[in-house]
Write a structure and sequence with these properties.
The chain is α+β, with helices and mostly antiparallel strands. The protein has two helices and two strands, in the order E-H-E-H. A two-stranded parallel sheet has the order 1-2. About 0% of the residues are buried.
Length: about 50
């Protein structure tokens, strides 16, 4: 998919919406809020959709 190697998803956002990982159409890694904050802080550019 256009050189996108990793997809990260907020576990809390999934829970709020009543979704689980099996319902995603693409493979993704679920992260908790602390993991997301740490991931974002390690990068200069962040794209969120």
């Amino acid at each position: 998919m256009y050189d996108i190697d990793q997809i990260f998803v907020s576990a809390s956002a999934m829970k709020e919406r009543g979704l689980d990982k099996a319902q995603l159409s693409l493979p993704a890694e679920l992260l908790d809020d602390q993991q997301i904050a740490a991931l974002i802080s390690r990068h200069d550019q962040v794209m969120s959709f």
